[in-house]
Specification:
Elements lengths: L1 E4 L5 H12 L13 H6 L7 E4 L5 E9 L9 E8 L8 H15 L4 E6 L4 H9 L3 E11 L9 E10 L7
Parallel strand pairs: 4-5
Antiparallel strand pairs: 1-2, 2-3, 3-4, 5-7, 6-7
Amino acid sequence: MIIREMVLADGGAVIDIYNRALRSGHASFQENGGTWSEWDGGHLLHCRYVADDGGGKVLGWAGLSSVSGRCAYAGVAEISVYVDPDFQGQGIGRQLLTALVEGSEQHGIWTLQAGIFPENSGSVALHQKHGFEILCRRHGFGRMTYGSMQGQWRDVLLLERRSKLVGID
């Protein structure tokens, strides 16, 4: 398996993996992954990675989104890491997150944020191993509109990683 830059031809696989992860009900408040155009427009143009099985099959993806259009937050980004449910538990998320952290620092990002449902303990642990810390638990942060938790208000953990290389004086 290799981690490589995402290309346009990966768009269909990225949306497929996103949709399949969303079905778990523990990945996002979003019910469906939308279109490639929507995904593309909602993510920064740099730090877009896929895990490729070596034969062109995409097993997971990672990307960054802006948290604000204000100049003071130019070095702050929200991360997304998704692994094909059929390939979870094989270290793919770890490799994608490593690439995302390294790539973000190369592009001047000093703070990475992640919002994770507390029930997604594997994702929380993965982020903590990469230097993210839990800043707070946002109680009743959003209401689920689908799945087994439809209608329930869900908590979200806010995790953050501050670079030791970028944005230091």
